[in-house]
Design goal:
The protein is α/β, with parallel strands linked by helices. It is about 50% helix and about 15% strand. The structure holds magnesium ion. Magnesium ion binds next to helix 7.
Amino acid sequence: MTLTVTILGATGSIGRSTTDLLAQHPDRFRVGALVGGRDAVALAKLAREMGAQFAALADASAGPALAEALSGSGIPNGAGESAVLEAVARDADIVVAAVSGAAGLKPTHAALRLGRTVALANKESLVCAGDAFMRDAARYNAKLLPVDSEHNALAQALGNGPVSDVAKMTITASGGPFRTWTRERIAAASATEAAAHPTWSMGMKINIDSASLMNKGLELIEAHHLFALEPERLDVIVHPQSIVHGLVYWLDGAVTAGLAMPDMRVPIAHCLGLGDRLTIARGRPLDLAAAGSLTFEPADEARFPCLRIARAALADGGAAPTVMNAANEIAVAAFIRGAIRFYDIADLVERACEHFAARYRTAPADVDEALAIDAEVRAWSLEATPRMRAAG
Ligand code: MG
């Protein structure tokens, strides 16, 4: 049986890894809809190569360019929110939800409501509206498969074991480019330095989040929702080689871990396989003897305050993670364009969490509420950013 796979975020890094795998297994998969952001030429090229059944861009103004780039291909296409939702509504066995940022919430949730099997790579769905997403996944009988390497490793290490037998789960962090830097040196770091990720190749936003360890904080929040574990039973450990991705500590002292080379195709293949194992051409097998030693160290919340802030938001619950995520997106964008310094990211996020703490004690009931909070916090954070620069 051939499975139809739709990809939201097809031209990004996860989307590319997914199409690479699909192209390797043409007897097993066919491509349903491909959804991109605004790059008409890249999406059209991919849609032609993959024989997509539909192509859509989120940016409505890119519609004419997409239609032009796909002319003669016979591939129906569109642009804007309705076209994205049409792409989601098309028949698919698996939807890979890899749009980055808050823009991924609506299409991902639409796939859940259709009861699809969703390979989830969009972090914000669970960070901003985790309660609503998990509730609706159960309500609409949708299956959520974690694509992120850490959660995928946890899912594999957990197997069929009950979460009630788990003492704790730990996700690993590479430590990012600043792992060995002093606080003073980190304080003066440029966006280029922060974006130089040692083990994974990813987009700019997630690279900065990896340098600040905010990415690990977001992943703790995701793990809390995915595995229904309380914050106290979730942990981070720094592991520079990025070979062990997640560890499950059982009540009896046994530990099972998920290991793999740092290659996103491994967790994606696990999701696409739906219980079967897919071979990966041109994948490098894990060679532990060549790796030599695997090292571990505690995460330093003094040099990486974003991890402390994220843990606090997770513990606070309610909409704290929604607020934190929105402020972080604005702060990271400001850092990338050179408007603020590295530790200003944590300062802005912490101030936003304090500012909105009293207003948002309850978790967003649905995606619309999460997006409304997101928009309000973004507006506040944009206002706060230049003041911070002047003060600093
Ligand atoms: Mg990750």
